[in-house]
Write a structure and sequence with these properties.
6-stranded antiparallel beta sheet, 6-stranded mixed beta sheet, mainly beta
Amino acid sequence: MSRTGRAAILLLGLLAAACAGGNGATLESDDVGIVGFHDFASGPEKSFGIFVCASGGDVELQSVEPIEAEGEIEMLGAIMHESSAGFVGADNGFPPEVLEGTEIVAVEGAVVTTPCDEAAPETRTQVVVGVSRSGPSGGTIEGVRINHENGSLDVAGYVIILCGEEMERCEDFAPEG
């Protein structure tokens, strides 16, 4: 290979590294399962928390989006919450009522500092997703994608269901009675 060819390859490699940005850190989550609501007496907006941690350094978040959405459901946005206690599983409203009086930040530009390699970190980090039922038949979000400075994290096993008024989509969430 010629000297010019080697220089071109080296330059391309350096450009690729520079364009990748960030510190090479990644985001991780082991949240999986089905979460949902059948009671909308408190309104159509709901919040769902997903625990995340950073591997290889701090990770700056950019956005959150559904991997797949079906039916009358829409994602309202996401916030980040760090705490040593008081987390969101599923709650009414967005931002959720349970976080009133605590520090929450918009996902865009938020930095996850909770290390994945620490067995019992002093604080834990959650990305809290806001979702709304936009019609009477409800809907489903199958998986959440969290975009960050070094790529994205697909939390594919995390399913959000907002039941319809006739319990569409929600055989598993039907109230006992």
